[in-house]
Q: What sequence folds into this?
């Protein structure tokens, strides 16, 4: 297994530890889809964040925000993705996504 399960959020870490073949297949699928076209890594991370926002997944928004910061993507770009959700998803969902991002970028 390429990722240490202890470095993953609890649910994902449990699956990775208990079912390493499932986790490895899942990780391989993610890698294959990211490499299936011409989208660069930065853009792919922002798209994944947007998809997490659209799926209303707080955990995925947190995860993609953490990973984006580790990859050097500036917090303002991440917050812009949340703001861009407002016209499509509505003001409440865009603000909710912004707060999820700020949970990671601006912890108290």
A:
């Amino acid at each position: 297994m390429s990722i240490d399960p202890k470095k993953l959020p609890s649910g994902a870490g449990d699956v990775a530890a208990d079912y390493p073949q499932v986790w490895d297949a899942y990780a391989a699928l993610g890698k294959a889809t990211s490499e299936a076209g011409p989208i660069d890594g930065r853009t792919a991370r922002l798209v994944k964040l947007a998809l997490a926002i659209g799926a209303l997944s707080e955990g995925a928004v947190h995860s993609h925000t953490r990973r984006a910061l580790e990859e050097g993507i500036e917090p303002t770009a991440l917050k812009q993705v949340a703001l861009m959700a407002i016209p499509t998803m509505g003001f409440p969902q865009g603000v909710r996504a912004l707060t999820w991002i700020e949970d990671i970028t601006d912890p108290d």
